[in-house]
């Protein structure tokens, strides 16, 4: 059973056999990709009380959107629209402001980019995410 995002917890965001990564140097503007390896600090995310996904390796960076790409961006309290996320009943990661927009993996392999897409019934299972913390 996939676990949903939990406020205040830090963990790995998994889709299939791969884990979301902010990149080994975790700098603003990095495109978010999928990796096959585990236990790397840059692959861990903290889900804060503002429903933002913060990179553990560089807490000044949050998961954000640039066009159709998912990137790391410096947190900006005045503009959090694209930085708020939640798990829906199908364990898709959806945007809080636009719940028909979800995070998707652009391909099945490691190094695939994470992109945004429109939530459709055909992708509910294939784009389900789990939030694996030390508690589960």
**General form:** globular
Write down the Rg: 13 Å
Terminal CA distance reads 10 Å
Quaternary state, please?
Answer: single chain
Question: Mind describing the biggest β-sheet?
Answer: 6 strands, antiparallel
Strand-pairing-aware structural class = mainly beta
**Residues in β-strands, percent:** 35-45%
Instruction: Give me the count of strands.
Output: 12
Note down, in words, how this protein is organized.
With 136 residues, this protein is mainly β. The chain contains no helices and 12 strands. Strands 1, 2, 3, 4, 5 and 12 form a 6-stranded antiparallel beta sheet that branches. A two-stranded antiparallel ribbon has the order 6-7. It has a two-stranded antiparallel sheet with strand order 8-9. It is globular and about 35 Å long.
List the helices and strands and how they pair.
Blueprint lengths: L9 E6 L2 E4 L11 E3 L8 E4 L5 E3 L5 E6 L2 E6 L10 E3 L5 E3 L5 E5 L8 E5 L11 E4 L3
Protein traits:
mainly beta; two-stranded antiparallel ribbon; 6-stranded antiparallel β-sheet; single chain; 136 residues
Task: Give me a quick take on this structure.
The protein has no helices and twelve strands.
């Amino acid at each position: 059973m996939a676990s949903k995002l939990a406020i205040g917890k830090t963990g790995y965001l998994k889709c299939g056999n791969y884990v979301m990564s902010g990149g080994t140097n975790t700098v603003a503007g990095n495109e978010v990709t999928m990796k096959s390896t585990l236990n790397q600090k840059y692959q861990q995310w903290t889900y804060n009380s503002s429903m933002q996904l913060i990179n553990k390796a560089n807490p000044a960076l949050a998961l954000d959107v640039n066009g159709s790409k998912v990137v790391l961006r410096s947190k900006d309290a005045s503009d959090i629209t694209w930085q708020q996320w939640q798990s829906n009943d199908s364990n898709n990661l959806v945007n809080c402001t636009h719940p028909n927009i979800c995070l998707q993996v652009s391909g099945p392999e490691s190094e695939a980019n994470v992109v945004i897409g429109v939530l459709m019934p055909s992708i509910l299972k294939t784009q389900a995410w789990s939030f694996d913390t030390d508690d589960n």
